[in-house]
Amino acid sequence: QVPVLQTNNGPGLTGLMTIAAHLVRQARKDQLLGSTAEEKAVVQQWLEYRVTRVNGGSSKEDTRTILKDLNMHLEDKVYLAGNIFTLADILMYYGLHHIMVDLTVQEKEKYLNVSRWFNHIQHYPGVRQHLSDVVFIKNRLYTNAH
Amino acid sequence: MRLRVPPGAPAALKVLAAAGAAPAPVRPHLGGPAGESGTFTPPPGAHSQPRGSRLELDNGTVLFSANAICQYFYLCRGEEPTDLTTQWLEWEATELQPAVAAALYLRLVQGRAGPDTLGVLQHLLAHLEQHLARSGSTHLAGDAASVADVVVWGSLFPVLQDETSLPSELQVLRSWFRSMSLWEPCRDAAALLPEALRELRTHLAQHPPPLLNPRHEPQDEEGPERTLTDDDIAAAVDIWAQGPAALPPPRQPRTPVLPVEGERNVLITSALPYVNNVPHLGNIIGCVLSADTFARYCRLRNWNTLFVCGTDEYGTATETRALEEGLSPQELCDRYHAVHADVYTWFRISFDHFGRTTTPQQTRIAQDIFQRLLARGFLLQDTLEQLRCESCGRYLADRFVEGTCPFCGYAEARGDQCDKCGKLINAVELKNPQCKLCRGTPVVTPTQHLFLDLPKLEGQLEAWLERTWASGDWTANARHITRTWLRDGLKPRCITRDLTWGTPVPLDGFRDKVFYVWFDAPIGYLSITANYTEQWERWWKNPQQVELYNFMAKDNVPFHSVVFPCSLLGADDNYTLVKHLIATEYLNYEDGKFSKSRGVGVFGDMAKDTGIPADVWRFYLLYLRPEGQDSAFSWADLLLKNNSELLNNLGNFINRAGMFVCKFFAGTVPDMVLTAEDQRLLARLTLEIRQYHQLMEKVRIRDALRCVLSISRHGNQYIQVNEPWKRIKGDERDRQRAGTVTGVAVNVAAALAALLQPFVPGVSAAIQGQLRIPPERCGLGPGLTCTLPAGHRVGTVSPLFQKLEPEQVEALRQRFGGTQAKEPPPASVPTPAPNTSAAPGDPKLIQELTEQVAKQGNLVRQLKAAQAEKAQVDAQVAKLLELKQQLALAEGRSPEVPKGKRKK
């Protein structure tokens, strides 16, 4: 279901990404949308990825692809947009929570970069709100050796 | 900065148009990777969008979304996104793109004519038309072409190509589309289209057709409360009237329990706990307690049930621990086995046999399975490199080696992991390795090992899984983990180890080795049964008659679903393989993990020191059972659930039902004349009981417990509405009504005794004792039945549960929180419930107290208004506070202690 925000002036806004970006600007937290043109475009890109790919009722196969994508992307990054924390991280966290809580330990280890990023974001002040804390185990259970 | 635009990508148009419109400091490369770059890593999304455009920025960032690339070009020329452009871009990505993909698929692959394909786009085109017409502006976000126009146009152009393909009633949209197509940047981009469409056709044909609507997961089957039909009511009344005849006959205990032909034979195992780890609450709920609850349920259903478990005793960890403690491994195991057995006895786990893996039977059966695997060619030999200490004359397990971390240079890294940098280490990679025991230098020595050839068994395994999954109940996580293993491909697994504490390998060249625990341990289920009865094969080589349930936490799934079945399939001796694999998720402790070393969490042997009864632990752990997802133990929640569910709901109902019989009817169940309302209650409860059975049969233990609680909630409501304590003082009709309500209520309490038995056996026994329910009437019927007929005499009724106080629980929380003092405070004994005439939650008491509080409050106000003497006022205020506290207790709230009062 697509969210709609009824504003005081003008017609309402439709869409998660649109509404979130609007609220961020309202709250004067524009840095969450990136500062340079590069950053802004990257944030835009991950917000789009969030609303088109990570949208709830996805199949197991889709979920695996998403985790693979993100794991690869996050290999050398702290946040989705590189070194700055942005709206993309927040919305992606909310989009992935239901997936992450259901992962097995083995899978959490397989998508190690996603796990590391997710754990970081969920402990970022003010992000987690009502969602449950997903627990990540420090020591690896499964190694590749047989 | 480099831009690559593959010609077959439907998104190429908008990128090219945007590059032209907002003069981009970049020249696009059409076609494959640009010449100067040899390799490139596929961008995220590559799995699903192999034909995507990409823009590589100078700082190394890659944009793979066409919309983001367009946005970037516009940002570069100073046009910031607005709410409106963002909204269009989002709409285009989520709504328009999927529809366009579907339309193109129809046209290019299925060859449908243009106008036919517009159907899927109809409502989206109407949306565009409406917006343009309403806003009165020439473009989507204002009067100039913005990124929104380019993106939407770029998406539409491959389907429309010409504005005349738009329905003529979409006038405004037609003129917008024409002016966009004529705009120079768009016109230049569009010139590439015929080529692009041909490429796109190939691309689309090779991929599954796009889905227009995302698939929806089926909704949870439990809807709002079902409405009762006349049939429901008639059936419930019938079951009620059958009385004890509706119950299954009680099972005659037989030793040993053996399968019986023609009966349902249920074999239950719970994962074998490792002997020198004292189990924590998570281990207990994960396997033994869940398995016990199910086993008790099976026995109540009169199914022929065997429940076995035992300690897993072989392996390096035991050997190491024994060395540290100066004991032989066997002595160490003896000691810890007793600790385990005590813990489970205390938790009232009803094993038919709790055995161990260090027995001659284990050796015999494991070696037999091994020989059969060997004879059938399912074992391989291979060489592994391992560290060997010559002075100790043994190969060193990882944890027997220390050395310098190859990653961070930390000098005291362990053979499996570095404590400093936390990285996992392969023991042979340690620099300057040292034997932990003699400090000698071990050398890397090749050693021969045996491997189970899983790839060779994969076909058999998959065929078996397919059959089993078709009829068995496997939890979703068990299926999922198993699928993951199969998908990633099976590899040969080493089944031997260079140790002495284990089952010896009966093969020349390997006689100084033992079986690796994961091969050996599951065989423990068989050997433990063999120690219970000589006729163990009637359980374990009898898949036709026996249904095997394995209980475990999810980390154990692969060994029970892939590895052990492969051993048994390969050994090919008509073994009973698992039919239902029940795996829980993890139980966390107060937002963290249980940790023995840090003293965080409650471990089995400490639970009894808390002073909280075993059944309260059982109840709370089952209430929290991590079914479906991880859950967390919390002290505050334990207090809440004890005081609300056990005390105020369940305990209160059963106690009142019994008390009414004692107080109003001298301990004899009165005559019952069922009214329509009573019949509806019977029907409602019968539905709940049916639901309970359905859930229990699927081993959804936690949800079944919710049903039980819901039954007592209905019971409480029933008493509350009918107020037997008032009617008993009324006329003949009222007295008869009070009798019926009391009689029905006490029968519901009797049914609860049976329903609760799998969860809280001690409480169930207490109810049976108090209500004097004969053993043959304690079975589980298909619905609510009258087991205590008029004239039945109940015994002495007393409260079943005690209130937990916040201070008591807070003390426990601190004690088990990992920061406790060295000397834990002595276990506090739960304080008895406040001395009130009725159990807490009694509405009558609450009402009385509320009235008294109001009266006393008025008195205090009057005194204050009249400026009475201070001593007099204080005395009345104290009385008021006392009353308020009693009221809070009666309502099941924790009384607020007015701390700030004195400062004033």
Automatic annotation (TrEMBL), chain A:
Query: What positions does the domain GST C-terminal occupy?
Result: 22-145
* Oligomeric and partner information: Part of a multisubunit complex that groups tRNA ligases for Arg (RARS1), Asp (DARS1), Gln (QARS1), Ile (IARS1), Leu (LARS1), Lys (KARS1), Met (MARS1) the bifunctional ligase for Glu and Pro (EPRS1) and the auxiliary subunits AIMP1/p43, AIMP2/p38 and EEF1E1/p18. Can interact simultaneously with MARS1 and EPRS1. Forms a linear complex that contains MARS1, EEF1E1, EPRS1 and AIMP2 that is at the core of the multisubunit complex. Interacts with ATM and ATR.
Organism taxonomic ancestry: Eukaryota, Metazoa, Chordata, Craniata, Vertebrata
Q: What InterPro entries does the database record attribute to this sequence?
A: AIMP3/p18_C (IPR053837), Arc1-like_N (IPR053836), EEF1E1 (IPR042450), Glutathione-S-Trfase_C-like (IPR010987), Glutathione-S-Trfase_C_sf (IPR036282)
UniProt keyword list: Acetylation, Coiled coil, Cytoplasm, Nucleus, Protein biosynthesis
- Compartments reported by the entry: Cytoplasm; Nucleus
Q: Source species, please?
A: Poecile atricapillus
Q: Does the keyword Cytoplasm apply?
A: yes
Q: Does the keyword Transmembrane helix apply?
A: no
Q: What does this protein do?
A: Positive modulator of ATM response to DNA damage.
Q: Which gene encodes it?
A: Eef1e1
Q: Which GO terms of type biological process are on file? A: positive regulation of DNA damage response, signal transduction by p53 class mediator; translation
What's the domain of life for this entry? Eukaryota
Just give the chief location class.
cytoplasm
Protein's UniProt name = Eukaryotic translation elongation factor 1 epsilon-1
